[in-house]
Design a protein that fits this description.
Layout: E1 7-18, E2 21-33, E3 38-42, H1 49-56, E4 64-69, E5 72-73, H2 79-89, E6 90-93, H3 105-116, H4 126-133, H5 148-160, E7 166-170, H6 178-195, E8 198-203, H7 206-212, E9 215-220, E10 223-226
Parallel strand pairs: 3-8, 3-9, 6-7, 7-8
Antiparallel strand pairs: 1-2, 1-4, 4-5, 9-10
Length: 227
């Protein structure tokens, strides 16, 4: 591709200390993600894909190697700079919805906008996002009144309300039944097709990867083994 990658990973290693034992989670990963694509990282539990997610998101430091997000080397940044990068550049979606139970869907989304520091504007595409997500009629409901799929779509809205160029999704359908999983995958696909949202999705589900992703990388034992 002629574009510069929005994510550039080179020689990435992550070793966890378990007492006196070193446990390698990543064993030298190289990969790129380009603007406007959906890339799926596929692999079983223990393959290193969630560790890769957390390192790329700046949530945990690597042991060795470099990660650049939007052209910025995470290892060369202060904690404050990495926090600011996450607020402005990266939206996170996790397997657990993590919605505040006492707030409505709309209020959950607005809290995320406030934390990001990006002010609301009439032209920021919020109404379009809500319609794409299919939750425009559910914004005044609290999480207990929403299905699992609706809660995850609210979580997605919360992640992209500040219009970050990159969305990181870690097992976004992991807690959902088949029907709600399909609704969430449809949502991610529409966000990419209609808004050009760049998405890196971690999944153990080959069908989810085939449905959403332009490319798939497969991980085993801390290595990318195909893709």
């Amino acid at each position: 591709m002629s574009q510069e990658p929005i994510i550039e990973v080179r020689g990435l290693k992550k070793i966890y200390k378990m007492g006196r034992v070193d446990v390698p989670a990543l064993r030298g990963v190289d990969m790129d993600v380009y603007p406007g694509e959906v890339l799926a990282i596929l692999g079983p539990s223990g393959s290193g894909k969630s560790t890769l997610f957390h390192v790329i998101g700046g949530l945990t430091p690597p042991t060795e190697g470099t990660v650049k997000v939007a052209g910025r080397d995470l290892s060369a940044m202060t904690d404050r700079e990495r926090t600011d990068l996450r607020k402005r550049t990266v939206g996170f979606v996790f397997q657990k919805f993590n919605l505040l139970p006492t707030l409505t869907a709309r209020e959950n989304i607005e809290v995320a906008r406030h934390i990001s520091g990006v002010p609301h504007r009439s032209d920021d595409g919020f109404d379009e996002i809500i319609k794409i997500l299919g939750i425009d009629h559910r914004l005044d409901h609290k999480p207990y009144a929403l299905s699992g799929g609706e809660q995850q779509r609210v979580a997605i809205a919360r992640a992209i309300v500040s219009n970050p160029p990159l969305l990181l999704a870690d097992e976004p359908t992991g807690n959902l039944d088949t029907e709600n999983s399909q609704a969430v995958l449809d949502t991610l696909k529409r966000l990419n097709e209609q808004r050009g949202q760049t998405i890196l999705m971690i999944t153990h589900n080959p069908e989810a990867a085939r449905y959403c992703a332009h490319r798939t990388l497969e991980m085993r034992d801390g290595h990318i083994v195909s893709g």
